Amino acid sequence: MWLSAFGIDANVVDALSLARVLPDDPVPEWARYGRTSWVEGGYRLLVPLYDTSGAISALYARSLRPLGNRSGRRSLPAVSGAGCFVMANRPALGLLRTASWPAKSEWNSVLVVGGAVDFLDWATSVHVEPIPVLGLVPGSWSPAMAARIPNGSRVILRTHKNPIAGRYAHQLAASLHERCEVVVRNC
After folding, report:
1. d(C-alpha 147, C-alpha 93), whole Å
2. What is the pTM of this model?
């Protein structure tokens, strides 16, 4: 229901293994912040975060509750310093694991977006002709992550018009501009 409010097909998300939803009960012991379960705070959508080698290294927990409907409950701390972890669809995982384009690849473009909603939207929108889609959270981008993008690639960065997105766009462009074409598109 929550995904469909953003025009995202939950069946495609599931089929492409882009995210999972925590069950209401039993809640895994690891899905807690202090004594509060993630489910109590509405944080049920789990998106894997991958490191620069393409290995799952963390989970991004996203609340499925509308912002105005969290009934005063304590929320999880804001994501910060995610340490070079990104959301990635299958083609992006291949790129992270090899730092090169497949021999028969017709694509040399990477789409980079911010946050779980934009990542799931774009990763499910381009699955017919898949291109690598990376989703960023604060702290995702680093020189090590930039090094996984092959020379000569076209990197399309979709950002929102706000100061935080502007800083990320500048950081990403600065790390790649000497060896890749960087295109910034504001939503």
Report:
1. 14
2. 0.86
